[in-house]
Amino acid sequence: MSAHMPLALTCGDPSGIGPELAARVVKSAPAPFFWIGDPRHLPADTPWQAITAPAETAQVPRGVLPVLTLDFAAEATPGQPDPANAAGTVAAIERAVRLVQAGEASAVVTAPINKKALKDGAGFAFPGHTEFLADLAGGCDVVMMLACAALRVVPATIHIPLKDVPQALTREGLETVIRTTHAALIRDFGLSKPQIAVAGLNPHAGEGGAMGDEELTLITPLLDDLRAEGFALSGPLPADTMFHASARARYDAAICMYHDQALIPIKTIDFAGGVNVTLGLPFVRTSPDHGTAYDIAGRGIADPTSLRAAMVMAWDMAERRASGGTNA
């Protein structure tokens, strides 16, 4: 096991499944971690122990949840988000980032939040975790990756209407996504010569301009320029032939042009085990690839598979950054 510091797991929305997932995963934790939140929000039968600093995690018995306590304004009712707890939810994220920046934690793993609840209760001005973390890091180009054992995907545009994608897709933006992904595959995933597949925007990758010209005017010229720099890129490829098993074997990550083009294949391949990774940050951040799940919160049936995978990935990434190691 690595000697680096434990993971910082944020509580997320206390009315969602975050607290109960922390309580479940600690029973067989895949990596050392501590939880930042209000212990009142944990399931009643959770064994937990307060700590005053992340280094104390090592002294907490196995199976007991180390808690860096953070007082929230109110108790939490499963399935019913309370605006009074929004400020505490934000503060947990901020504290996790400060601890990683100070070298007291190895990585941030975030439990799901509800952006509307945070906006209503704390004036949260960010579209989500990703943008907030970039701001806490001092401002940097960040990219969202969804990853599982069989596939890594990166959407070049994210939470916008489909009709707005062609206008949002720019050379500068797509180049940033590709460069950020390439650098992260080397630094965080240990790939010395990453192979990246790039999807087209249109059906059949435009079919020579018959079904749209973004491939001809935007995507192909950019890929050609990056190939001239030494990037190993394939594409633009028809998205409908990129994700079967033999196609996936030919690349390390796929850059997609919009949200569903990226997320449908990975959620089909591994719905429970996907991990959300923020690329481009000066620290490691992962998250389970699911939401607050208010409909099942408090019932003790939430699946910890994605959180467990997020913790394993965060630990591996932090260890790789610490060692500076890459694979062939």
Automatic annotation (TrEMBL):
- Where along this sequence does the record place binding of substrate? H129, T130, K267, N276, R285
Please name the InterPro entries in this protein's record: PdxA, PdxA_fam
- EC numbers, comma separated: 1.1.1.262
Gene3D superfamilies from the UniProt entry: Isopropylmalate Dehydrogenase
Q: Which UniProt keywords apply?
A: Cobalt, Cytoplasm, Magnesium, Metal-binding, NAD, NADP, Oxidoreductase, Pyridoxine biosynthesis, Zinc
- List the catalytic activities from the record: 4-(phosphooxy)-L-threonine + NAD(+) = 3-amino-2-oxopropyl phosphate + CO2 + NADH
Q: How does it assemble?
A: Homodimer.
User: What is its biological role?
Assistant: Catalyzes the NAD(P)-dependent oxidation of 4-(phosphooxy)-L-threonine (HTP) into 2-amino-3-oxo-4-(phosphooxy)butyric acid which spontaneously decarboxylates to form 3-amino-2-oxopropyl phosphate (AHAP).
Q: What else is known?
A: The active site is located at the dimer interface.
Which family is it part of? Belongs to the PdxA family.
Q: What is this protein called?
A: 4-hydroxythreonine-4-phosphate dehydrogenase
User: What would be the name of the gene that encodes this protein?
Assistant: pdxA
